[in-house]
Every structure is written in C-alpha cells, then in structure tokens.
Design a protein that fits this description.
Blueprint lengths: L10 H21 L5 E8 L2 E8 L20
Antiparallel strand pairs: 1-2
Length: about 70
Amino acid sequence: MSRSITLIDELPARTRIRQALLAVLDNARRYAPQSTIRVEICAVGLTGVIRCSDTGPGLPAGMHEKVFERFWGR
C-alpha cells in the first residue's frame, strides 16, 4: 500500500499552524510546568493531524467552554 502526503506550501497556512502549535505548547508550559508534554503527528487519510497532550492538572470544572473565548486565561 502506498500513500502520498501533500504538504501545505502556502506561507499563511504554515504560519497559522505554527502559531497555533506554539500557543498550545506555551499554555502547557505555563499552566502545567512540571508535566510531560507529548506531541504526535500523523496522517489520517489525506488530513494531517497534530495532537498535543500533557500530564498537567487540566482545567477546573466548568471552564471547558471558556477556553474557546478570545483572550481568556485562567
């Protein structure tokens, strides 16, 4: 079985992906400083997937919806 992966070579898309990934990693560093951070990259069909996780304490109860508000911070 052969697979081909097409990389996005458009500068704005690469820049936005980089910004988003750095923001996620910075949040993990800032709010879970003693945790292990894991970054996984894979392809699902024709879609690239980046998965980030950490072993930090997580969000307080009731705060999960707020993380999608712009400029929200704990």
